[in-house]
Amino acid sequence: MKKYVKNLRVAAVEFPHELYVLLKLTDKEPLPETLPGQFVEVKVEGSPRTFLRRPISINYVDRAKNELWLLIKKVGEGTHQLAKLKVGDTLNLVFPLGNGFSPVQKQGESVLLVGGGVGVAPLLDYGKYLKDNGAKPVFLLGARSKNDLLEQDLFEAIAPVYVTTEDGSEGEKGFVTQHTLLNKEHFDRISVCGPKPMMVSVARYAKATDTPCEVSLENMMACGLGACLCCVEKTVKGNVCVCKEGPVFNINELTWKV
Predict the structure, then answer these.
(1) What span, in angstroms and rounded, lies between the C-alpha atoms of 157 and 7?
(2) In degrees, to the nearest 5, what angle opens at C-alpha 254 toward C-alphas 238 and 190?
């Protein structure tokens, strides 16, 4: 897929949580084709100590409004600088990068999408794609508390949403792999994005139930093109760059002990 370097204009800035910013970006021309699960590399201006671009998952692409959304967690100096952007500012992106989630395998297939923290971001676009193409997505979202759930209303507009929180303030108390949904329903396949311990736990469940499963890795990335080698992941075929060969992998490709 062709890659682009573009200056996109900030069309909207929203703060769904004190630790997160949602940037909605647009362009005068129609946005390039992207696949659910791909990411962008963002150039951070005004941050002298931020030398490298920052990898950000594509949260959603609104073709009707010609908008590309980035849900960003404010972690370091670079991401805090991105949170200071205003409507009308420009942001330089290299995109679309990486390989996304699997396409629809068959009409009517049931796909469980499991997300935790900012890992829920790419699942919004993927869930919409699945629904639009004849699949039946179901979301299972995990967070520390009710206040930490992100874009829940947007997920609910697409498909059924189930929730776990560690403190029990929303949905079932516990972790996503403890939700009773997993004991009641069988899914044709599972797609996951979130903290590695959560993804490993879901992968273990998938193995135990013989359910095809793919995960979106969040290894540290710098170039996004497979040149700097800082995002290498060990697989059954040897070491590969997550930014180029992933970020989405079938769990059978990984060497995780599940």
Answers:
(1) 30
(2) 150
Looking at the chain, the domain(s) classified CATH 2.40.30.10 span 4-97
Q: Which CATH class is domain 4-97?
A: mainly beta
Phi/psi at 88 (5° precision): 100, -20
Give backbone dihedrals phi and psi of 11, rounded to 5 degrees, phi first: -90, -25
Is the bond leading into 96 cis (omega within 30 degrees of zero)? Answer: yes
SS3 76: coil
Give the three-class secondary structure for 250. Answer: strand
Instruction: Determine how β-strand 232-235 pairs with β-strand 67-73.
Output: unpaired
Q: What is the pLDDT of residues 7-46, one digit of tens each?
A: 999 999 999 999 999 999 999 999 999 999 999 999 998 7
Which class for 21: exposed (0-12), middle (13-18), buried (19 or more C-beta within 10 A)?
buried
- Run of H or E residues at 204: helix 196-208
**Which fold would CATH assign to domain 110-253?**
Rossmann fold (3.40.50)
